[in-house]
Amino acid sequence: MLLQKIVREVTPLTSGDCFSISSRELKEFDHLLHYHDEYELMLVSNAKGAKRVVGNSIEVIDDLDLVFIGPNVYHSWFKHQNNSSLIKEISIKFHKDLFDESFLKRNQLCLVKSMFNNAQRGILFSKETTVNMVERIINLKQKTLFDAVLELLSILHTLSASSNAKLLSDPGFLDEKFSYKSRRIERVFEYLSINYEKNVTLEEAANLANMPAASFSRFFKKMTGKTYIDSLNEIRLGHASRMLADTDLNIANIAYKCGFNNISNFNRTFKRKKLCIPREFRETYTSEKKVYI
Protein backbone atom coordinates (compact mmCIF):
# COMPACT_ATOMS: atom_id res chain seq x y z
CA MET A 1 0.00 0.00 0.00
CA LEU A 2 1.08 3.64 -0.40
CA LEU A 3 1.75 5.52 2.81
CA GLN A 4 2.59 9.19 2.94
CA LYS A 5 4.68 10.23 5.90
CA ILE A 6 7.62 12.33 6.96
CA VAL A 7 10.41 10.29 8.44
CA ARG A 8 11.94 10.99 11.84
CA GLU A 9 15.64 10.39 11.38
CA VAL A 10 17.58 8.83 14.23
CA THR A 11 21.08 10.15 13.66
CA PRO A 12 24.30 8.32 14.59
CA LEU A 13 25.21 11.14 16.97
CA THR A 14 25.56 9.69 20.47
CA SER A 15 24.91 11.41 23.78
CA GLY A 16 28.64 11.34 24.46
CA ASP A 17 29.58 13.21 21.28
CA CYS A 18 29.50 16.98 20.80
CA PHE A 19 28.81 16.71 17.07
CA SER A 20 29.06 14.40 14.09
CA ILE A 21 30.25 15.12 10.58
CA SER A 22 29.61 12.98 7.52
CA SER A 23 30.53 13.41 3.87
CA ARG A 24 29.14 11.56 0.88
CA GLU A 25 29.44 11.49 -2.88
CA LEU A 26 26.18 10.60 -4.62
CA LYS A 27 24.97 10.01 -8.14
CA GLU A 28 21.64 11.42 -7.00
CA PHE A 29 19.99 12.34 -3.74
CA ASP A 30 18.43 9.45 -1.83
CA HIS A 31 16.81 11.45 0.99
CA LEU A 32 13.22 11.23 2.09
CA LEU A 33 11.58 14.28 3.57
CA HIS A 34 12.64 14.03 7.21
CA TYR A 35 13.36 15.76 10.51
CA HIS A 36 15.56 15.06 13.53
CA ASP A 37 16.23 16.36 17.03
CA GLU A 38 19.58 17.93 16.19
CA TYR A 39 20.77 21.14 14.53
CA GLU A 40 22.27 20.51 11.11
CA LEU A 41 24.64 22.49 8.90
CA MET A 42 24.37 21.06 5.39
CA LEU A 43 26.75 21.84 2.51
CA VAL A 44 25.76 20.56 -0.93
CA SER A 45 27.92 21.06 -4.02
CA ASN A 46 27.68 20.16 -7.70
CA ALA A 47 23.90 19.91 -7.42
CA LYS A 48 22.65 22.73 -9.64
CA GLY A 49 18.99 22.19 -10.50
CA ALA A 50 18.22 20.03 -7.45
CA LYS A 51 15.21 20.88 -5.29
CA ARG A 52 15.56 21.85 -1.63
CA VAL A 53 12.64 21.62 0.80
CA VAL A 54 12.99 23.29 4.22
CA GLY A 55 9.78 23.83 6.14
CA ASN A 56 7.39 25.36 3.63
CA SER A 57 10.19 26.64 1.40
CA ILE A 58 10.62 24.81 -1.90
CA GLU A 59 13.45 26.11 -4.10
CA VAL A 60 15.67 24.98 -6.94
CA ILE A 61 19.30 25.35 -5.86
CA ASP A 62 22.51 26.47 -7.53
CA ASP A 63 25.78 24.52 -7.66
CA LEU A 64 26.59 25.39 -4.00
CA ASP A 65 24.06 25.30 -1.18
CA LEU A 66 24.79 25.92 2.51
CA VAL A 67 21.85 25.75 4.91
CA PHE A 68 21.53 25.73 8.71
CA ILE A 69 18.47 23.87 10.00
CA GLY A 70 17.00 23.73 13.49
CA PRO A 71 15.65 20.72 15.39
CA ASN A 72 12.50 19.02 14.06
CA VAL A 73 12.32 21.11 10.88
CA TYR A 74 11.09 19.19 7.81
CA HIS A 75 13.79 19.20 5.13
CA SER A 76 15.49 17.33 2.31
CA TRP A 77 17.12 17.68 -1.10
CA PHE A 78 15.83 15.96 -4.26
CA LYS A 79 17.20 15.37 -7.75
CA HIS A 80 14.59 17.41 -9.65
CA GLN A 81 16.47 18.89 -12.65
CA ASN A 82 20.00 18.06 -11.48
CA ASN A 83 22.08 16.17 -14.06
CA SER A 84 25.40 15.99 -12.21
CA SER A 85 27.24 12.71 -12.25
CA LEU A 86 28.56 13.26 -8.71
CA ILE A 87 26.87 15.29 -5.97
CA LYS A 88 28.86 16.06 -2.83
CA GLU A 89 27.32 16.71 0.56
CA ILE A 90 28.75 17.36 4.02
CA SER A 91 26.45 17.23 7.03
CA ILE A 92 27.37 18.51 10.49
CA LYS A 93 24.88 17.67 13.25
CA PHE A 94 25.03 18.66 16.90
CA HIS A 95 22.77 18.33 19.92
CA LYS A 96 20.29 21.12 20.58
CA ASP A 97 21.65 21.41 24.14
CA LEU A 98 25.33 21.51 23.13
CA PHE A 99 25.29 25.27 23.67
CA ASP A 100 22.65 25.87 26.31
CA GLU A 101 20.71 29.03 27.06
CA SER A 102 22.92 30.13 29.95
CA PHE A 103 25.93 30.03 27.61
CA LEU A 104 24.27 31.66 24.61
CA LYS A 105 22.82 34.58 26.57
CA ARG A 106 26.30 36.05 27.06
CA ASN A 107 26.88 39.29 25.17
CA GLN A 108 29.69 37.92 23.02
CA LEU A 109 27.41 35.18 21.66
CA CYS A 110 24.38 37.30 20.76
CA LEU A 111 24.82 36.70 17.01
CA VAL A 112 25.12 32.93 17.46
CA LYS A 113 22.02 32.90 19.67
CA SER A 114 20.07 34.86 17.05
CA MET A 115 21.17 32.42 14.35
CA PHE A 116 20.04 29.46 16.45
CA ASN A 117 16.62 31.08 16.90
CA ASN A 118 16.33 31.68 13.16
CA ALA A 119 17.35 28.10 12.38
CA GLN A 120 13.76 27.05 13.09
CA ARG A 121 12.92 28.64 9.75
CA GLY A 122 16.06 27.34 8.01
CA ILE A 123 18.85 29.73 7.00
CA LEU A 124 20.33 29.87 3.52
CA PHE A 125 23.75 31.52 3.41
CA SER A 126 24.86 33.69 0.51
CA LYS A 127 27.00 32.36 -2.32
CA GLU A 128 29.91 34.53 -1.16
CA THR A 129 29.70 33.23 2.40
CA THR A 130 29.39 29.64 1.21
CA VAL A 131 32.44 29.88 -1.04
CA ASN A 132 34.46 31.31 1.84
CA MET A 133 33.34 28.54 4.23
CA VAL A 134 33.77 25.46 2.03
CA GLU A 135 37.40 24.77 2.92
CA ARG A 136 36.82 25.23 6.65
CA ILE A 137 33.83 22.88 6.62
CA ILE A 138 35.76 20.26 4.67
CA ASN A 139 38.77 20.55 6.98
CA LEU A 140 36.66 20.25 10.14
CA LYS A 141 36.78 16.49 9.73
CA GLN A 142 40.56 16.60 10.22
CA LYS A 143 40.20 18.26 13.62
CA THR A 144 39.99 16.13 16.75
CA LEU A 145 38.77 16.41 20.32
CA PHE A 146 38.72 19.93 21.78
CA ASP A 147 40.19 21.53 18.65
CA ALA A 148 37.22 20.20 16.66
CA VAL A 149 34.69 21.74 19.07
CA LEU A 150 36.50 25.08 19.02
CA GLU A 151 36.54 25.10 15.21
CA LEU A 152 32.84 24.22 15.05
CA LEU A 153 32.02 27.14 17.36
CA SER A 154 34.25 29.39 15.25
CA ILE A 155 32.46 28.30 12.06
CA LEU A 156 29.07 28.96 13.65
CA HIS A 157 30.19 32.40 14.82
CA THR A 158 31.49 33.31 11.36
CA LEU A 159 28.20 32.24 9.80
CA SER A 160 26.17 34.14 12.39
CA ALA A 161 28.04 37.35 11.50
CA SER A 162 27.78 36.87 7.73
CA SER A 163 25.67 39.16 5.57
CA ASN A 164 22.80 38.48 3.16
CA ALA A 165 21.63 35.26 4.81
CA LYS A 166 18.04 34.35 3.94
CA LEU A 167 15.34 32.83 6.14
CA LEU A 168 13.61 30.09 4.18
CA SER A 169 10.39 28.94 5.85
CA ASP A 170 7.53 31.21 6.87
CA PRO A 171 6.74 31.84 10.54
CA GLY A 172 3.72 29.78 11.49
CA PHE A 173 4.82 26.62 9.69
CA LEU A 174 6.49 25.55 12.92
CA ASP A 175 5.79 26.83 16.41
CA GLU A 176 8.57 29.25 17.22
CA LYS A 177 9.51 32.10 19.49
CA PHE A 178 9.66 35.51 17.90
CA SER A 179 12.87 37.26 18.88
CA TYR A 180 13.33 40.96 18.12
CA LYS A 181 15.10 43.77 19.94
CA SER A 182 11.71 45.16 20.84
CA ARG A 183 9.16 43.79 23.26
CA ARG A 184 6.47 45.78 21.41
CA ILE A 185 7.17 43.96 18.15
CA GLU A 186 7.36 40.60 19.90
CA ARG A 187 3.99 41.25 21.53
CA VAL A 188 2.43 41.97 18.14
CA PHE A 189 3.90 38.81 16.60
CA GLU A 190 2.72 36.71 19.52
CA TYR A 191 -0.79 38.08 19.04
CA LEU A 192 -0.71 37.48 15.27
CA SER A 193 0.51 33.91 15.71
CA ILE A 194 -2.66 33.16 17.70
CA ASN A 195 -5.13 35.35 15.78
CA TYR A 196 -3.86 34.99 12.19
CA GLU A 197 -7.29 33.83 11.00
CA LYS A 198 -8.83 37.18 12.01
CA ASN A 199 -8.72 40.52 10.24
CA VAL A 200 -6.08 42.09 12.47
CA THR A 201 -5.78 45.62 11.16
CA LEU A 202 -2.72 47.85 11.34
CA GLU A 203 -4.57 50.03 13.83
CA GLU A 204 -5.28 47.05 16.10
CA ALA A 205 -1.64 45.96 15.96
CA ALA A 206 -0.53 49.53 16.71
CA ASN A 207 -2.77 49.58 19.78
CA LEU A 208 -1.04 46.42 21.02
CA ALA A 209 2.26 48.27 20.72
CA ASN A 210 0.74 51.38 22.32
CA MET A 211 1.72 53.52 19.33
CA PRO A 212 -0.09 55.63 16.71
CA ALA A 213 -0.68 53.63 13.52
CA ALA A 214 1.63 55.72 11.30
CA SER A 215 4.47 55.62 13.82
CA PHE A 216 3.98 51.91 14.40
CA SER A 217 4.08 51.20 10.65
CA ARG A 218 7.46 52.95 10.31
CA PHE A 219 8.80 51.33 13.49
CA PHE A 220 7.65 47.87 12.40
CA LYS A 221 9.37 48.21 9.01
CA LYS A 222 12.58 49.44 10.66
CA MET A 223 12.69 46.55 13.15
CA THR A 224 11.66 43.71 10.84
CA GLY A 225 12.60 44.90 7.36
CA LYS A 226 9.07 44.12 6.19
CA THR A 227 5.70 45.80 6.14
CA TYR A 228 3.06 44.82 8.67
CA ILE A 229 0.85 43.25 5.95
CA ASP A 230 3.75 41.23 4.51
CA SER A 231 4.57 39.86 7.96
CA LEU A 232 0.94 38.99 8.68
CA ASN A 233 0.67 37.20 5.34
CA GLU A 234 3.89 35.27 6.06
CA ILE A 235 2.39 33.96 9.29
CA ARG A 236 -0.84 33.05 7.51
CA LEU A 237 1.03 31.32 4.69
CA GLY A 238 3.10 29.39 7.21
CA HIS A 239 -0.02 27.96 8.83
CA ALA A 240 -1.66 27.38 5.44
CA SER A 241 1.39 25.53 4.15
CA ARG A 242 1.40 23.30 7.21
CA MET A 243 -2.25 22.42 6.59
CA LEU A 244 -1.52 21.74 2.92
CA ALA A 245 1.34 19.44 3.88
CA ASP A 246 -0.20 17.63 6.82
CA THR A 247 -3.96 17.50 6.18
CA ASP A 248 -6.46 16.64 3.48
CA LEU A 249 -8.49 19.79 4.08
CA ASN A 250 -10.00 21.44 1.02
CA ILE A 251 -7.79 24.30 -0.18
CA ALA A 252 -10.65 26.80 0.04
CA ASN A 253 -11.25 25.80 3.68
CA ILE A 254 -7.55 26.26 4.43
CA ALA A 255 -7.64 29.72 2.88
CA TYR A 256 -10.54 30.83 5.10
CA LYS A 257 -9.06 29.18 8.21
CA CYS A 258 -5.88 31.20 7.66
CA GLY A 259 -7.51 34.60 7.31
CA PHE A 260 -7.81 34.98 3.54
CA ASN A 261 -11.21 36.33 2.58
CA ASN A 262 -11.40 34.55 -0.78
CA ILE A 263 -9.66 31.77 -2.65
CA SER A 264 -8.43 34.06 -5.45
CA ASN A 265 -6.61 36.30 -2.97
CA PHE A 266 -5.13 33.23 -1.28
CA ASN A 267 -3.87 31.77 -4.57
CA ARG A 268 -2.47 35.11 -5.69
CA THR A 269 -0.65 35.80 -2.41
CA PHE A 270 0.62 32.23 -2.15
CA LYS A 271 2.02 32.26 -5.68
CA ARG A 272 3.68 35.64 -5.22
CA LYS A 273 5.46 34.46 -2.07
CA LYS A 274 6.03 30.75 -2.76
CA LEU A 275 6.31 30.85 -6.60
CA CYS A 276 3.60 28.21 -6.99
CA ILE A 277 -0.10 27.94 -6.27
CA PRO A 278 -1.33 26.02 -3.18
CA ARG A 279 -2.33 22.95 -5.20
CA GLU A 280 1.16 22.71 -6.71
CA PHE A 281 2.73 23.14 -3.27
CA ARG A 282 0.63 20.29 -1.87
CA GLU A 283 1.49 18.04 -4.82
CA THR A 284 5.21 18.79 -4.56
CA TYR A 285 5.33 18.41 -0.80
CA THR A 286 3.40 15.16 -0.64
CA SER A 287 5.11 13.60 -3.67
CA GLU A 288 8.48 14.06 -1.99
CA LYS A 289 7.45 12.26 1.20
CA LYS A 290 6.00 9.06 -0.22
CA VAL A 291 7.24 5.81 1.30
CA TYR A 292 6.19 2.46 -0.08
CA ILE A 293 5.49 -0.33 2.40
Number of domains: 2
Helical fraction equals 40-55%
For the CA atoms, what is the radius of gyration? 20 Å
In CATH, what is the homologous superfamily of the largest domain? Regulatory protein AraC
Can you count the helices?
Answer: 11
String of helices and strands: EEEEEEEEEEHHEHHEHHHHHHHE
What is the CATH domain class of the largest domain? Mainly Beta
Low-confidence regions: none
Read across the widest sheet, the strand sequence of neighbours is: 3-10-5-8-11-12
Q: Round the mean pLDDT to the nearest integer and report it.
A: 89
Named CATH topology of the largest domain: Jelly Rolls
Describe it for me?
- The chain has 293 residues and is α+β, with helices and mostly antiparallel strands.
- The chain has 2 domains: 157 residues, Sandwich (Jelly Rolls), CATH 2.60.120; 110 residues, Arc Repressor Mutant, subunit A.
- 42% of the residues lie in helices and 19% in strands.
- It is built from 11 helices and 13 strands.
- Strands 3-10-5-8-11-12 form a 6-stranded antiparallel sheet, covered by helices on one side. Strands 7-6-9 form a 3-stranded antiparallel sheet, with no helix packed on it.
- A hairpin with a 2-residue loop joins strand 6 and strand 7.
- Helix 2 packs across helix 4 and helix 6 packs across helix 7.
- It is globular.
- It starts with a strand and ends with a strand.
- The mean pLDDT is 89.
